[in-house]
Amino acid sequence: INKLAQVDTSVLIRGESGTGKELVAKAIHMNGPRKDERFVAVNCSAIPEALIESEFFGHEKGAFTGADGRKIGKFQYADGGTLFLDEIGDISPALQVKLLRALQEQRFTPVGANREVEVNVRIVAATNRNLEEMIKKGEFREDLFYRLNVLPIFLPPLRERKDDVLALVEHFLQKFNGTYGAKIQGVADEARELLMKYNWPGNIRELENVMEHAFVIESGARITPASLPDSIRGLSRSGKSAVASDNQGADGKENISYAINLNNLDFQNQKEEFEKHFIISALKVFNGRINQTALHANIPKKTLLRKLEKYGLTAKDYQDDGD
C-alpha cells in the first residue's frame, strides 16, 4: 500500500463487502503526496439515481426542482485530495460516460451550469462486483474500467486470511476501549478459539460489529464466549445448537440456519418466519444495501422492497458507516 500510495494515479480496490476497502483507500491517501488534503468518500449505491450526478459534479440554483441554491459536488470538494468512489459498479451507464470524461480531462460541468470546473483529484474506486462480467453484458464501460484499473488491489475475504483475525481483534479492543471508556484487557482463550473458527461471511465489518457487541455485553475484564453473538457460538436464536453442524458451507459462506418452533407447526407461519429470517441475514451480510442484497439473494428488487414493508424491516437498520 505504501508503494502504491506514492504513485499518483487511479486505484481500483476489489473484494467482498466488508473486507476493508475504505480503510485501504484511506491508507493510500494518508501515505501519499495528497495526505494533507481532503479524503472524500462517496457510496455510489446509496445515492438515488436522480441525484447522483448532482452529488458528483454539483449543481446551480434552479437546475432542477428542489435545487434552491448552488451546490459544490464531491469532485470539486475533493480538489487537491483523494475522491473514494465506493461501489463504483452500481452507477448507471449514462453517468459512467460523464465520470470517464471527468477522469480523463479533470474537468466537468455542474448540473445546470454553462461553465466547466477544473479539478486535480486522485481517484480511488472500489467494488465487490465482477466488472469484467458486467463489461461483457454491456453494463459497465470497458474504457472506464481501464481508466480506473491502473493500479489494481484485491482484498481476499477474512476467511482466507485467518492470521489477520487476532490482529484485528486487538485493534478493535483498543478502539472500543476508547469509545466506551472500558478497560477490557483481552479475550479469553475459549472466545479466541471461537473467533478463529468462524468463517466471517461479513468480513472485517462483521468482526467489528461482533467486537462492539461483546463490549456492550461484557462486564468482566476479558471477553468471554457468553458475550459473543449466538452466530459466533454456533447457536440459533432459540439458544439451541443450529440444525446444521457447521455454520459455513464448503465455499466458506455462511449457511442460514433456522430453528423450527415446534409449538407452531402451521406451514404458512413457518414459511413467513423463515423468509423474514433469510432477508434479515442477507441484509446483515450486505450491510443493508438493497441492490446487493437483491442481486446476491436472487430476489427482484421490487419484491425485496415489498417484503421489507411486509415484515416491518428497514434496510438502514443493517447499515454502518464504513466498508
Count of helix runs:
14
Q: What count of structural domains?
A: 3
Say which CATH homologous superfamily of the largest domain is assigned.
P-loop containing nucleotide triphosphate hydrolases
The CATH top-level class label of the largest domain: Alpha Beta
Helix fraction by DSSP (H/I, runs of at least 4): 40-55%
The major pleated sheet works out as:
5 strands, parallel
Q: Which fold name corresponds to the CATH topology of the largest domain?
A: Rossmann fold
Q: Return residue spans where pLDDT drops below 50 for at least 5 consecutive residues.
A: 236-255
The spatial strand order of the largest sheet comes to 2-3-6-1-7
| Topology, number of strands | 9
Q: Whole-Å distance between the termini?
A: 17 Å
Radius of gyration: 22 Å
Which overall shape is indicated by the principal axes computed on the Cα atoms? globular
Mean pLDDT: 85
CATH architecture identity of the largest domain: 3-Layer(aba) Sandwich
* SS strand fraction: 5-15%
Give the helices and strands as they follow along the chain.
Answer: HEHEHHEHEEEHHEHEHHEHHHH
The helix-and-strand class reads alpha/beta
